[in-house]
Amino acid sequence: MAWMIAGASTVALVLMPVSRVGWAAQESGTFVWGRSGDAVSLDNAIADDGESGEATVQMFDLLVRARPGSTDVEPDLATSWSWTEDGTELSFKLRQGVKWHDGKPFTAADVKCTFELLLGKATEKLRLNPRKAWYRNLEEVTAKSDDEAIFHMHRPQPALIALLASGYSPIYPCHVPPRELRTHPIGTGPFKFVEFKPNERITMVRNLDYWKPGRPYLDAIEYTIVSNRSTAILAFVAGKFDMTWPYILTVPLLKDIRNQAPQAICELRTQNGTTNLLVNRDKPPFDNADLRRAMTLTLDRKSFIDILSDGQAKIGGAMLPPPEGLWGMPPELLNTIPGYDPDVQKNRRAAQEIMHKLGYGADKRLALKVATRNINSFRDPAVILIDQLKEIYIDGELDVVETANWHSKVTRKDYSVALNGTGSGVDDPDQQFYENYACGSDRNYSGYCNPELDKEFDRQSAEADQEKRKKLVWQIDRKLQEDGARPIILHGIAATCWQPQVKGLTTMVNSIYNGWRFEDIWLEK
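^ thats the sequence. predicted structure below, dont judge the formating
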């Protein structure tokens, strides 16, 4: 099989953007963005939250990126790339003359250092390493010269280029210790860091030495933290913000904004994020597979969707359902999985029977806490979950956790039951399976581990034929749902709104992290 691919490749990221053209771009002003919460870190390598990722993406570049307005992958810090014939080496020719924000030159050594850090081979270790699982097939990266970096893999992995095009794959400077990047990032991106005042704002200014001619257009970006969603919406309606925080608006809130600010431009999109149930299978009594199965069977996914999204969110497995997603199971296959049968009452009768066998019933109920992150998109479905668990003799108490503590809490598995939201860096099975379900992954919050299924992860990853790979992915996804590895409640849909003076914005329908680098945006004066 020939693996040679060069230049801008039409890799099947299927980011499905919505693009606008036709305006005359101009340099203009400060873009003010209302944020729902504080960033956990300004080091994207350890960030697990959208607030961190969507800020740091402004300051860093990638080797390759998803082309705005297209499903293609295009050059970024790399100008071209090519595979060896056996598909185990991927070479990148790098852009020359690029400078870090402190003036030092960017070279292939920085690419090498970045992946030594992610692979855990660097002298200094990351405090958290949620993306390490993405690169378990990567043996090493070498610098052939200052302008060429080579990725050496254990086996073929056609989707590696898709992972590298995610907003979660920035290149870091060799000369800056990772611990310093957490509070003062230095990248090569279109905007330079100015200030981070926790619980108040993050500010950055135009990088005057940016390698892309004429970019960025904006003078500065200011992220204003407004933790109360209603307050943030009122500020947007009053014209204080140029844009709402991405995907923060439910369908009812979108209707409110359209009534109060009819001039606003709003789009309702899927974003490749799920609301899911976490059950700590190492903590009694949840180490009992039958109990976990009963909890999965009682889920009424349609009720969640009707209440939270006016019926517009999607039911699916681990992978984003079609048509927005490339890899999701078709409905006729999904509905054969236990718990996905549309007959909710039948599912619950089966769940109640399991609970009776375990000794639970109306006169002996199971009390527990349902942990969740203290933002609306987590709290609201957690309340619905607690109500549905009552149907199988489980009494839940809401336990809200602040964003700064949430990801570390679930990473160390300091919970019994939790309602979680998972954003995906790219619509590809390698990202989804290795990060969230592989044995030993930092982001495998439920502790699910199936060594035989890990082998299937590798098998689908090495498959170059997309249709054959899709069939393997469906088999894997079905097994994950049957095992209750991380029960998926829904695939989210939400809206983003911006003021009419904002031009050049592209939104993505299946990536929460990849469409928010703002070098192409300007404010019409």
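The chain has 15 helices and 19 strands.
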